[in-house]
Amino acid sequence: MTGGVGFGVFSDGAAGSRVGFRVGNGVLDLAAHRLGDVFSRPSLNAFLALGPAAWEDVLGRIDELVTSGADVTPLERVSVHMPFDVADYVDFYSSLEHATNMGRLFRPDADPLLPNWRHLPVGYHGRAGTVVVSGTSVVRPCGQTKAPDEPTPSFGPSRCLDFELELGFVVGIGSSIGEPVVPDSFRDHVFGVVLVNDWSARDIQAWEYQPLGPFLGKSFATSISAWVTPLALLESSLVEGPVQDPEPLPYLSARGRFALGR
Questions:
Q1: Catalytic site residue 98?
Q2: Which residue among the candidates 81, 98, 125, 189 is catalytic per the annotation?
């Protein structure tokens, strides 16, 4: 779809918040074009819950509307909002380079890459209630910090506020407790992607993260883009994943093109 960016929630003037599809510098009002009642709501959740067949059908109808020259609302006339309600999220080390760089930051005198990373996904559950849409003001957090040469910790604002550009995968169809999802079923559950700004108070995190991992140094804010790009629009960018050494255990093995390239 030429110029298609993705789904989001927008408002303009006195009209309420609703779902739109961004095309270039405009927003296609999906409810106004009668694509379904799920798009008159201020969240994508109802649409995401319909599953892959519905996602594909709607994208096809949007493509027809865009190709026929349907009216769009100029981007400068709209306000954007959180695109979906976040029930839960997990933050992972995304690559060898990511894990190694973080290890060097927190363990400068030891092996930066811990042995488990080469065998399983390493992640932690984040604080869903602090996920905000891009552009939301972020308050610098306060907490305890302790330098190696200080005898006791002190309390105050973070002096090492950091951010990481990451990619977030948006799950549309959930799974049942106790029923594993195999890697090859990825597209049966994941709808699309958002850009993520993973805010971190590194000085607070360095003091508090052992032994249980990130807490207040990571849980004060996570920003996501207002637009969710469906996986279907990224098919041409899917490539073979890097060779894993050692080879993952069978339950983590995925076939085909599953990594995003340029």
A1: yes
A2: 98
